[in-house]
Amino acid sequence: MRKKFKILVTGKNRRIAMDICNHLAVDRDYSVIKCAAKPDALLELVPVERPRVIIICLGDERKETVRAFDILKECAKLGALTIIVVANQEDKSLFIKYTNLEKMIFLSRPVSLFALYEKLEEEERRYTRDDDDDYSILSEYINPNSDRVARRHILAVDDNAEQLLQIKEHLKEFYEVTLVGSGRDALKFLRRRKVDLILLDYLMPEMDGPEVINEIRQDPSLASIPVMFLTGVKEKSKVIKTLVDIKPQGYIVKPSKKSELVAKIIDVFEQETEE
User: Fold this and answer.
1) Domain check: are 160 and 269 in the same one?
2) pLDDT at 150 (0 to 100)
3) Which residue among 99, 132, 165 closes a domain?
4) What percent of the chain has pLDDT over 90?
5) Is 85 helix (H, G, I), strand (E, B) or coil?
C-alpha cells in the first residue's frame, strides 16, 4: 500500500493556514498536519511525520519569527522536503532578508488554489516516482582512494531548538553538523548514518541522555561512537555522578562559548586518534 502524501501547514497567519487546511481536507486526499510556528514544535514534529511539503503562512513577521523557520534547513537533511511560503509582498521581502533557508517557493496572497494544487500535484508525482524507484535520481559518491579529506560529522541532540542552532553556528565552520530534537530521533538517524561524535542533552522529555547513551552502547554498530553530554548548570552535579557509571567522553555546560566547545571536541578526537 502506497504511503499517503503528507503536507504540514504552519505559520503565524492562522486564518490563511486554517483555510488551506480545510481546502486540502475537502478537495484532496492528502494527510494534512498542523504545527505551531515555533522551532521546538517543528523540530519535534517534522522528523517524525516526514511531510513531503511544508506550507508556511506568513503574517506580520519580524526578524525573530522568520528565523524560527531556519530549523527546517536541518529537517530537510532527513529527507526530500519542499517548502511553500504564502506571503504578501511585505512579508516576502522580510522573509528573504532574514531567512537562512536555501530553497523555497513563494505563493502570493490572496492564495490561488489552482496554483497551489498544481504545485502539490507535481510534488506528489515526484513523490510517487521516488517511492517506486530502487535508487535516488541524485546520489553522492566519495571515492575512498581520492585525496579528499572528509569533514567530521557531529550529531547534536537537544529538545531546545535555540540551543541546537547555537551549536550549529559554533561548529559549522569546522564540522558537518546534524541537529535532532529528541533521543528517539537521534537513534533513528544513527541507524541510517554513522557519525564521528554525539553531543547529547542530558535532560530531555520521554528519553533522556543516559537512556539514549545506554541504547547506543548496547548496539555494536554504534558503541564506539564518542558521546559528550550537554548540560545546564543545574544538572552539572548529576552529570558528574553519571560519568562514573556511563563513562561518556565528557560534558559541556551550556550555553558554551565557541572556543570552549571546539576545544573540547578537538580533545575528544585527539584522544580517539591516540587510542
Assistant:
1) yes
2) 61
3) 132
4) 27
5) strand
> What nine digits make up the cell of 42?
517543528
Please, which residues bridge with residue 85 across strands? 56, 106
pTM of the entire predicted model: 0.60
Q: Characterize 242-260 residue by residue with b for buried, 16 or more Cβ atoms within 10 angstroms of its Cβ, and e for exposed.
A: beeeeebbebbebebeeee
Tell me how many degrees the CA angle 64-59-7 measures, rounded to the nearest 5. 95
pLDDT for 239 beyond 70: no
Residue 1: what pLDDT? 42
**Measured between alpha carbons, how far is 111 from 31 in angstroms, rounded to an integer?**
20
Residue whose grid cell is 535516488:
136
Give the residue-averaged pLDDT of 99-107. Answer: 88
Is the four-CA dihedral 105, 8, 56, 162 of positive or negative sign?
negative
Shared domain check, 119 and 224: no
Which residue range forms the structural domain that includes residue 126? Answer: 6-132
Q: How far apart are CA 6 and CA 52, in angstroms?
A: 6
HSE value, Cβ hemisphere, 13 Å, CA-based, for 36: 6
Positive/negative CA dihedral, 133, 9, 169, 154: negative
Based on its alpha-carbon atoms, the radius of gyration of the chain, rounded to whole angstroms, reads: 21
Closest of 78, 15, 72, 6 to residue 38, by C-alpha = 72
The H or E element spanning position 73 is: helix 71-75
Q: What is the pLDDT of residues 180-224, one digit of tens each?
A: 888 988 998 898 888 999 999 988 888 888 899 989 989 999 989
Cα 243 to Cα 40: distance, rounded to the nearest angstrom: 28
**How far apart, in Å, are the Cα atoms of 122 and each of 30, 43, 119?**
14, 26, 5
Which CATH number fits the domain that encloses residue 235?
3.40.50.2300
| Cell representation of residue 143 | 571515492
The candidate with the shortest Cα–Cα distance to 185, out of 168, 163, 169, 200, is 200
